[in-house]
Design a protein that fits this description.
By secondary structure, the protein is mostly beta strands. It has a single domain (3-25, 111-322), classed as outer membrane lipoprotein receptor (LolB), chain A (Clam). Helix content is 7%, strand content 39%. The protein has helices spanning 3-16, 162-166, 232-235, and strands at 120-129, 134-145, 150-159, 170-180, 183-193, 196-197, 202-205, 210-213, 219-221, 227-228, 246-251, 256-271, 274-284, 288-294, 300-307, 313-322. The chain has a 16-stranded mixed β-sheet that branches. The longest helix has 14 residues, at 3-16. The protein is globular and about 80 Å long. It starts with a helix and ends in a 7-residue tail after the last strand.
Length: 329
């Protein structure tokens, strides 16, 4: 194969590496912006001329003589005093102090969601250039759920084979957060390229309902249940009625947007890691990303296909799965 073609493949994989994690910023379609509305108003007609009325002279009335009034009695009137009623023995009745009712006890806290996966595990994928039919890279997802309710997720995508020899590229994304009612709640997202900080990081402030993006220093409001591009893979296990589609907020190191997932129905597929009964999800914008999640494996992703604007396709297929609980959520 010509070196120029191999170099082009390596460059293309570097550009689409984030998408091959399974949830790139353009994985889900964002809502289109409304068209501006222009309204032109015709000029108002000139008002009719105002005709001035003749001014009449004002005749002043003669002053009136003041009347003499008899001064009122300014002595203070007696003030009635409330006397408490007396009992039979002549003692005044004293009202008993009534204690205010105590507020009702607060409702018990809602327990956070429990991980549906084992405490730790790994997924490994082969990345295939579909038009050529051979492997150009590999990817790996690792997770760790701790007993204190926090989690750590790590995703790595890198070139392999001849592409790695000519232009080695390694992309890393790390997500940390904690389990809450409803699933995962990310707290920080960090990304690196070839071992260096790529300045595409995010820090979540859930009390304020905002996320800070390091790329441009912006602070964006986020909706409840928002995920980052890595935690979304694992949050799919907690989304109800996913077979009917879903809408969810997603944060990357670049931006935050609301995305829509379309359900394409159930499919049985074969991968190097085995046969899986899956739910096929798709999102279409300028790019198209499809993801197949295993219904009998806690909805973990087992296949991902990314199609860019030029129609170039990369397929990520599961080659190994380890330390995953066998029971469904």
């Amino acid at each position: 194969m010509p070196f120029v073609l191999i170099l082009a493949l390596a460059s293309s994989l570097a550009l689409h590496g984030a998408a091959l994690f399974g949830t790139d910023v353009e994985m889900f379609g964002s809502e289109s912006e409304p068209l501006p509305l222009r309204v032109e108003l015709p000029p108002l007609p000139a008002p009719p001329p105002v005709v001035a009325e003749p001014v009449r002279p004002v005749v002043k009335a003669p002053p009136k003589k003041p009347r003499h009034r008899t001064p009122a009695n300014t002595s203070a009137a007696p003030v009635a005093r409330m006397v408490p009623p007396a009992t039979e023995d002549g003692q005044a009745m004293v009202a008993e102090a009534v204690e205010p009712a105590s507020p009702p006890p607060p409702p018990p806290p809602i327990s956070p969601a429990r991980p549906v996966l084992a405490a730790s595990g790994v997924l490994r994928f082969a990345i295939i250039k579909e038009s050529l039919g051979f492997q150009v890279g590999r990817a790996e997802h690792r997770w760790e759920f701790r007993e204190d309710g926090h989690y750590r997720l790590l995703g790595v995508t890198e070139t392999s084979g001849l592409a790695a020899l000519l232009k080695p590229v390694r992309l890393e994304i790390e997500s940390q957060g904690r389990m809450v009612p409803g699933g995962l709640q990310p707290e920080r997202l960090r990304s690196r390229k070839n071992g260096q900080d790529s300045n595409e990081n995010a820090d979540f402030d859930w009390e304020g309902g905002v996320v800070s993006l390091s790329r441009d220093g912006s602070v964006r409001e986020i909706a409840k249940g928002t995920q980052d591009i890595l935690s979304l893979n694992y949050q799919l296990a907690y989304l109800g009625r996913l077979a009917e589609g879903a809408s969810i907020g997603v944060v990357t190191g670049k931006k935050y947007e609301r995305y829509a997932l379309d359900s394409m129905g159930e499919e049985d597929i074969d991968t190097p890691a085995g046969h899986f009964r899956t739910l096929h999800l798709r999102a279409m914008t300028d790019n198209t990303t499809e993801i197949w999640i295993a219904l009998d494996r806690q909805r973990l992703p087992v296949k991902i296909r990314f199609t860019d604007k030029k129609g170039e396709r990369f397929v990520q297929e599961l080659t190994e799965i380890g330390s995953v609980a066998e029971t469904a959520p």
